[in-house]
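User:
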Amino acid sequence: MSATPIVSILLPCRNVVGTLDAALDSLAAQTYDDFEIVAVDDGSQDGTGELLDRWRRQEPRLRVVSGPPRGIVAALDIAAREARGSLLARMDADDVARPERLARQVEFLSAWPQLAGCGTRIRYFPRRLLRDGARRYERWINGVVEPEEIDRDMFVECPIPHPTLLVRHEAFEKAGGYREVGWPEDYDLVLRLWRDGQRLGKVAEVLLDWREAPNRLSRVDPRYGPDAFRRCKIHFLDRRVGGRPLVVWGAGPVGKAFARAWLDTGHTVAAFVDLDPRKIGQEIHGAPVVAPSDITRYREAYVVAAVGQPTAREEIRAALRAAGLAEPEDCCAVA
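Assistant: Predicted structure:
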């Protein structure tokens, strides 16, 4: 490691004594070595602090900041303020980085100077705990790789797995760093980078093993629930819509929930589009349900494809292109 490392790894820790050794072992085994680990012990009570102290004595690249429990956003903010590197990498204390992770990502950003940051493909483990939803998300997130695909699917889900993020420190600071805003801090950061015109990419390799567990923060904290994700999306989508009427393509559960959240922020929905002849002619939230052939009546509107299934999403995109709408200027997918 140089006196001023290139990469600073932000590692928040709270009560992770059972998984921390594996995470730190994976970082110590990286083929790229010009990095520091900034671990923030966020009020642990299970021996995490003592384990970090033992690691610090044997790993000179590890720096530890200890304090009372403040939450993951505060811990990340502390780590970012302590970081010295020109690149910031995320890592969770229960995940495992593949040996080539940092090398591949640093190489990727060197080859793509126009990008603000990048992620990687992931693999959930242990596989026996995976539900269908996690398997679908793994397939989706590993399929969204190119910067254009990431831009296109920005409002489906967060397209960069947070524990794989490597971001230029300057771009991170310009976007405002991490914020506590009542929805996922990682998605909030990615969307602010996007809002500022920054682009992101992804190394097309599985370089992180992402631990699945029923007590993961994203499974139990309401800040990572469906309602919080919708609030986050709508907050940033408002700029893209730009005051135009909104048409929601999809009168199923996803479309209805998205429209309800859009209405709750004081916006309006001009119409729903659906294939089901039983729904056409009805009203949802005061807006008419129309057939796909009627989409041309809403030339001034912005259309969101609000469906959960990727195949249905692609069919809607094809229909919108055929109707002369361009993505993302006139339409985009949400979920």
